[in-house]
Amino acid sequence: MIHQASQQIYDTLKAKELKAFIQEERDASIVSASFPLDGGASFQIRFLSLDEDNDVAVRTSSILRVKEHQVKTILPVINRLNSQYRFAKFVLDDDLDVIVQYDLPLRGNNVGECALEMAVCFVKVIQKTYADLMRTIWQ
């Protein structure tokens, strides 16, 4: 089932002529869109909805993957970025991927416009921080 928040997000992104996709996965509906990074890489932003409420989990695909010996080097950078950016939480997940996440609140009125604003925010933040993250792991 495509949840109403996902449909609103999908419609809003498509209205802005973004290449967005919507899909069902078990009890969730997911809207995804890809965005470019420097050097030809790209990342996806996914909006996950589990019910008919407006609370939506916003998650990126992997921005970069670190190796075990790089964890001690990347964590201080992630912590610094988390103190710099209010609506983008950088996370090193269990697979050693750096992702960015945020949760849209339940009581938002226009979930499509909120999601679009978060996509714009994520793209700006990730494009600003990507070179710094990459430099850190290549040192």
What does this structure look like?
Helices cover 39% and strands 30% of the residues. By secondary structure, the protein is of the alpha+beta class. Helix 1 (4-15) crosses helix 3 and helix 2 runs antiparallel to helix 3 (111-138).
Could you list some keywords that capture this structure?
7-stranded antiparallel β-sheet, 139 residues, single chain, elongated, 39% helix, 3 helices, alpha+beta
What is the number of beta strands? Answer: 7
Helices and strands: which structural class? alpha+beta
Terminal CA distance reads 46 Å
Rounded to the nearest angstrom, the radius of gyration is: 15 Å
Number of helices: 3
Task: Spell the H/E element sequence.
Answer: HEEEEEHEEH
Mean pLDDT score, rounded? 94
Principal-axis shape equals elongated
Strand composition percent: 25-35%
Assign a percent range to the helix content.
Answer: 25-40%
pLDDT < 50 stretches: none
- Summarize the biggest pleated sheet: 7 strands, antiparallel
